[in-house]
Design goal:
The protein has 9 helices and 19 strands. The strands form 6 sheets. Strands 8, 9, 11, 12 and 19 form a 5-stranded mixed β-sheet that branches. A 4-stranded mixed β-sheet has the order 1-2-3-4.
Length: about 375
């Protein structure tokens, strides 16, 4: 933990203080931001208050009084619940607004980790509670130069694998046949050769399966891939090295000539994707703050204008870090209204989709914001792949 860095972020965001609280590892964010061991045995409540100015304060149970000794600041202890309440009120007395892992109306569930009872207790001291969402994004989703470089390295390898995948599908489909699970395993072997790792295998989805955004082929459910089929590949991985960052894309194609409807849907999805890219780029060129929900809204309005809005059933994009779904701003005004800012040195996907019963189209690229501008980090699909 870097106390000066956290306090500088507090001041820059207009925060008076940041109150961390945990019991039985309910808040993993606290452990990551503060640099505490995630395996530490925690059977009693602990609190750590970082002010925008001055020294932090700890509040720990006497049975586990050593838990926060690795962190700077003075220490208060408690045993009885009355003593806990009294000490906590004393800790918070200088402040009017207290920042916590909280999201109004549970709008961003990734951040809304403090239980309702604790929020009631802090409010009972006359305090206003504000969300730590943008602070968490600052410390969990912004990338170092090395991490950004690892993303581009992963992207170069995955772009190559993606191109080879469609060639291999075509070859096998015309020479004895293949199926979804077989091609998924082909990709996993390619990952191993390229020094890549992934949290889950890629999705190879054919025809109606591509209309399910989270379809996962298995040996038992795998569908054959043959002439005339529509194929969706959702592929993500990262370099096998410490703190590397994922690259996550989706491409689609047809074994043979696509239908007019397949071309139409792809064109709409491509236009929506490019609308999202331009929305981000324009905001940073104008040096304007932009939140995740604003990008999703622009993309959704584009698809709505083409008459396909009810088939766009998920958010436009997600934060990408060393986790495939990071803790920065998601491009979302559907499942949540994500009012987190898109911050410099962050990475995220832009992946609108239209999902019909017969087939589904998603076109996913990754964007990175750095050096004052938004950029697409890999190859961009502009036509259906003719497999």
């Amino acid at each position: 933990m870097s106390l000066p860095e956290i306090q500088a972020a507090l001041r820059a965001g207009g925060h008076e203080c940041w109150l961390f609280y945990d019991h039985h590892h309910r808040d993993p964010i606290a452990y990551r931001v503060l640099g505490l061991s995630p395996t530490m045995m925690v059977t009693r409540r602990w609190f750590y208050l970082i002010p925008a100015q001055g020294q932090p304060v700890k509040l720990v149970h006497r049975i586990e009084s050593h838990h926060l000794d690795s962190l700077p600041g003075s220490k208060m202890e408690y045993s009885a619940w009355q003593e806990l309440w009294q000490n906590l009120e004393t800790m918070l007395k200088p402040y009017h607004r207290v920042t916590m892992q909280y999201s109004p109306n549970n709008q961003i569930p990734y951040i809304s980790l403090v239980d309702a009872g604790m929020l009631e207790l802090v409010r009972g001291f006359g305090k206003e509670i504000v969300s730590s969402a943008n602070l968490v994004a600052r410390f969990e989703a912004t990338l170092t130069e090395a991490q950004m470089a690892s993303h581009f390295k992963a992207g170069q390898a995955i772009d190559k694998i993606t191109a080879a995948f469609f060639q291999e599908v075509g070859h096998r489909a015309r020479n004895g046949g293949t199926h979804e699970f077989e091609m998924q395993q082909w990709i996993m072997e390619a990952f191993q050769r390229e020094g890549l790792e992934t949290c889950d295998p890629p999705n190879v989805s054919v025809n109606a399966h591509s209309g399910d955004p989270h379809y996962e082929p298995t040996a038992d459910t795998s569908a054959p891939i043959k002439q005339g089929d529509f194929v969706l590949l959702d592929i993500w991985a990262k370099r096998i090295e410490p703190d590397s960052v994922y690259y996550d894309i989706t491409w689609t194609g047809t074994v043979g000539t696509p239908t007019n409807q397949q071309r139409e849907i792809f064109d709409v999805v491509r236009g929506a994707r490019d609308t999202g890219v331009r929305k981000v780029q324009a905001a940073f060129e104008a040096k304007q703050k932009i939140c995740g929900w604003e990008v999703d809204q622009a993309v959704r309005e584009f698809i709505d204008s083409k008459g396909w809005g009810r088939y766009f059933i998920h958010r436009t994009g997600h934060s990408i870090t060393s986790d495939i779904h990071g803790n920065g701003a998601n491009l979302d005004n559907l499942e949540t209204k994500d009012d987190r800012e898109i911050l410099p040195n962050t990475c995220f996907s832009v992946e609108p989709g239209i999902y019909l019963p017969e087939f589904g189209v998603r076109s996913e690229i990754n964007m990175m914001v750095r050096n004052g501008k938004g950029e697409v980090t890999g190859r961009v699909q502009n036509e259906l792949v003719l497999i």
